[in-house]
Design a protein that fits this description.
By secondary structure, the protein is mainly α. It is built from three helices and no strands. Helix 2 runs antiparallel to helix 3.
Length: about 70
């Protein structure tokens, strides 16, 4: 989709960025469910989970871009 308009490098960067974001959200969700199973009374708030997932995805994307 992005290949024709922005070039191969932009398409690759977009794909890697979305992959990183997906992995970060999946990891955060797994950690959330594990924590909930172990200690259901002190569960993370959903906003904190979303914020930490976004920060992890951004950090991973910055790491890939700087290479």
């Amino acid at each position: 989709m992005y290949t024709c308009r922005y070039g191969e490098e932009a398409a690759k960067a977009t794909s890697e960025g979305l992959d990183a974001a997906g992995h970060a959200v999946g990891t955060a969700w797994a950690a959330f469910k594990l924590r909930q199973a172990m200690n259901p009374k002190s569960v993370l708030k959903p906003t904190a989970l979303t914020k930490s997932a976004a920060q992890a995805a951004a950090a991973e994307l910055r790491g890939k871009i700087s290479k």
